[in-house]
Amino acid sequence: MPDIHWWRPYYACENFHLAAASGSEAQNWKCEYSNIEFGESWKRQWHWSQDGKNLGDWGVDDMEPTVGMLDGHYFVVGKRK
User: Fold this and answer.
1) What's the pTM?
2) What phi, psi does 65 have (nearest 5°)?
3) Of 12, 17, 60, 63, most Cβ neighbours within 10 A?
4) Between the CA of residue 13 and those of 9, 31, 35, 37, 80, what are the distances in Å?
């Protein structure tokens, strides 16, 4: 996961996925983790809308558009047919 910026990764995410937004049919990208030392503060930052806009309350970058393909349960960045 990014440490504010995507080009500076810092933490690994155990479970990065689309999750149902609270009280809505929309889904948002979230990182679900069990052992990040900074806890709830960071958990709120690693949350993006389905189109990649950060939903946290302080300065983590929006997601960057990328090319890739689904390979089983994984999205492989840069992979093409």
Assistant:
1) 0.68
2) -60, 145
3) 60
4) 11, 6, 10, 13, 24
Separation between Cα atoms, residue 29 and residue 50, nearest integer Å? 6
Residue 27, phi-psi category: left (phi > 0), alpha (psi -120 to 50), beta (remainder) = beta
Domain ranges in the chain are 2-77
Tell me: the pLDDT tens digits for 22-55?
Answer: 666 678 888 877 666 666 777 778 889 888 899 8
Three-state SS string across the chain, please? Answer: CEECEEEEECCCCCEEEEEECCCCCCEEEEEECCCCCCCHHHHHHCEECCCCCECCCCCCCCCCCCCEEEECCEEEECCCC
Rounded distance, CA 19 to CA 50, Å?
10
